[in-house]
Amino acid sequence: MTETSKTDATADKGNGEVWIVGATGRVGRGVTARLAARGLTVVPVGRSRERMLAAGTDAGLAGNAKVIVADSAEQIAHEIAQKRPRVVVNTMGAFAATAPVIARACMPGGHYVDQANDVAAVQGLLALHDEAVEAGSTLVTGAGFGVLATEAVVAKLCEGRPTPHRVRVDAVASVAIEAGVLGAALAASIVDALTAGGRRYENGQLIASRLGADPQQLIFPDGESAKSAGASSGELLAAYAVSRAPFVTATSALVPTAPLIRALLPPLGRLLSVPALRRLAVDRLGRTTVKATPRPRKHSWGHAVVEWADGTRHEGWLRAGDGMDFTADVTATLTELLARGVGKPGAWTPAAALGADLATTAGGTFVLD
Ligand SMILES: NC(=O)c1ccc[n+]([C@@H]2O[C@H](COP(=O)([O-])OP(=O)(O)OC[C@H]3O[C@@H](n4cnc5c(N)ncnc54)[C@H](OP(=O)(O)O)[C@@H]3O)[C@@H](O)[C@H]2O)c1
C-alpha cells in the first residue's frame, strides 16, 4: 500500500480530491475520463500502479499523476481514513461487502458513490443513512443505468400524485461489449443475481419470488423491442421507496426469457449458492474471453408502469444511449455535484439524493405519457 508522486504540496490532505476505486475497469475508466475532462482532481485507486498509470494516461491524467495502490476494501478504507478525499467512487464491485467498508471510511464529511444494483448491496448501503446524516456525508448507491434509469421514471410519474397501488419497472440496457476478459466484478454480479433469486413487494413487504417471473415483451417508443423477466434488484427497492406502492415488481432484459432456461434458473441459483461453486463460477466466468460486439439496440430504456386504485395508469420511459456510457455519465455527474457540495447528508439511491432530473443532466431523455 503505497502512494506515488504527489501532484502538489496539498495532495496529502486529499483536499478536493476524487478517488476512483477500480480506475482500470470499464466503469472506472469512463468516470476518470469524464471527471478529468471537467477539471476535477482525480486519483486512481487500485491494485496495480502500472495498469492505473496506463489507464490514467488514456483517460487524460498526467503521466506522473498520483495513484493509490491498495488491493482490498479494508486497505482502501485505511487510505481514505488517512488522506480524507472529498468523494470516493467505488467501481470495484462485490458491493455488498466492499460498499459499507469504503463508505464508512468516507465519514465524517466525505462523500461516496457506487454502481450497486443488487438487493443486498443497496440495502446495506441505505442502512448507513442515520450514520451518514450524523456525519454530514452523502452516500449514493445505484449510480448507473441501474438504479437511476427506472427510479427516475417512477419519480416523474408519481410527482404530485397520490400513492399508487401498483408499480412495475423494466430495465433494458443496450451495451457494447469490449474485447477481452469479462472481468471478476461483472462475473460476480451475474452469479450473485442467479443466487439471489427473485423478489417483489406484496402488501408493502419484500418477499421472495421466482427469478424470471412475469416475462414481458416490451415495445419501445422508437419501435424496437426486447424481452425482460422478473429479477431482484436495487431498481425494485428504489421503485418501492420512491412510490410507496404496496405492490411492486421489477424485470430486467438481463434475465433470460426462453422457457427452458427460465425453468433452469432456480436450480442453477441453488447450485451456485454453494460457496466453492460460486467461487469457481465467478473465476471461470470472469476469465471468459469475449469478442467486441456492438450494442444490440441504439438505445437503453428504463420503463415504469404506475397504476392507482381507481384504475388510473401512467407509463413512462427514460431513453439513454449505451448503458455502460450512461452509467459512467451518471456517476460522473453525481460525483461532480457531490464534490461541489451539492447533495444532502444521508444514504440514498441517485434520484432520492439529487432528484429525477439527474437522469437528464446525465444525458437521458424522458418519454412520459
Ligand atoms: N448499476 C449499473 O448500471 C452498472 C453498470 C455497469 C457496471 N456495474 C457494476 O459496476 C462494477 C464495475 O463494473 P466494470 O464493468 O467496470 O468492472 P471491471 O471492468 O471488472 O472493473 C473492476 C475494477 O475494480 C478493480 N478491482 C477489482 N478487485 C479489486 C481489489 N481487490 N482491489 C482493488 N481494485 C480491485 C479492478 O482492478 P484490476 O485492474 O486490478 O483488475 C478494476 O479496475 C461491477 O460490479 C458491475 O456489475 C453496474
Automatic annotation (TrEMBL):
Pfam families: Sacchrp_dh_NADP (PF03435)
Protein's UniProt name: Saccharopine dehydrogenase NADP binding domain-containing protein
Saccharopine dehydrogenase NADP binding domain: residues covered: 18-140
Taxonomic classification: Bacteria, Bacillati, Actinomycetota, Actinomycetes, Kitasatosporales
InterPro entries on file: NAD(P)-bd_dom_sf, Sacchrp_dh_NADP-bd
